Amino acid sequence: MLKKMVAATLLAVAGGAWAGGMESLETFVKTVKSGRADFTQMVTAPARDGEAPRVKTSTGTFEFQRPGKFKFDYKKPFAQSIVADGQSLWLYDADLNQVTQRPQAQALGSTPAALIASAADLGALKRDFTLESAPERDGLQWVKAIPKSKDGQLQSVQVGFQGDALSALEILDSFGQRSVLKFNKVEVNPALGASTFAFKAPAGADVVKQ
User: Fold this and answer.
1) 94, 75, 83, 80: which is closest to 195 by C-alpha?
2) Rounded to an integer, what distance in angstroms lies between the CA atom of residue 10 and that of residue 103?
3) What is the pLDDT of residues 111-142, one digit of tens each?
4) Are 204 and 95 in contact (CB under 8 A)?
5) Alpha helices in the chain (DSSP H)
6) What is the DSSP string of 39-54?
7) What mean pLDDT value characterizes the chain?
8) 17 — phi, psi (to 5°)?
9) Predicted structure pTM score
């Protein structure tokens, strides 16, 4: 479920030690129109009585082009693709050979993926999120966003910057499940062809429209 949310940057409250985070975000929104990175994602489910929390780790690649296009390719442990082409959001599960198609405008809403790929400026972020500073940790400056809409499954998002570079994304959903994405080999403003975000259902795949 959380894999549909993906990767991003938010707004910090300016002032004091948090000026760096604010400046990093402002630079990102103004100057970064496309990007490519590898990622590692760790999803921790709430612990059951008498059991340790369950952690699942995935790796893959991420590409985006603002406004409105992104692609998550999960390589391990299971192959899965999430593609937003500007009109539809596609989710492909290779093991099930199943494709789910949803209208992008309805599917994204106040999600981390929307923050990366759809926000045209800081004002657009403020319309969808309540934004505040968060304490520095792990050598990163953090900003936190809480969606103003209460209809979705997203509870909060925190984004970590190292200097002006996006480094980490932490997502907490309404079920208490926590997802942490760490980005590496980040490329800023690579040339991404139109075919990057074009999705075609594999032969024989079951296509479900929602």
Assistant:
1) 83
2) 24
3) 777 666 766 677 777 788 887 778 888 998 88
4) no
5) 19-31, 104-108, 112-117, 122-128
6) EEEEEEEPPPTTSPPE
7) 81
8) -70, -15
9) 0.80
